[in-house]
Design a protein that fits this description.
Strand content: 25-35%
Number of strands: 7
Low-confidence stretches: none
Helix content: 10-25%
Mean pLDDT: 85
Oligomer: single chain
Structural class: alpha/beta
Distance between the termini: 42 Å
Number of helices: 2
Radius of gyration: 17 Å
């Protein structure tokens, strides 16, 4: 039998259903996972900085893994490294003469 080593949840509509608050049941499950040596993380379409703000609002400093921008950003809290994948580069929109920053 294989042992679970990592659980990753989406935020909206998955781990948080109503009012963007983490329920006591969800907190209990997260704490139980962590106590049993199972890594826990969040995956979201939100940027990493917004995920960090959200989990601080839930009373946690950090989780083991944060995946943001639908997989374009990954923060590994165990190694304290952050990775960026397939991000758009700066480009000049010639129609409006403006520079769009990396998203």
């Amino acid at each position: 039998m294989k042992t679970c080593k990592l659980v990753i949840c989406d935020i909206d509509g998955t781990i948080v259903v109503k009012h963007k608050k983490l329920t006591s049941r969800a907190k209990k499950v997260i704490n139980l996972l962590q106590q049993n040596g199972i890594y826990f993380g969040i995956a979201s379409g939100r940027p990493i900085f917004q995920i960090k703000e959200t989990i601080k609002g839930w009373g946690y400093d950090d989780f083991d893994v944060l995946i943001g921008l639908n997989g374009s950003s990954l923060k590994d809290s165990l190694t304290q490294k952050q990775y960026e994948y397939f991000r758009m580069k700066k480009r000049v929109d010639q129609r409006n003469d403006r520079i769009d920053e990396t998203i």
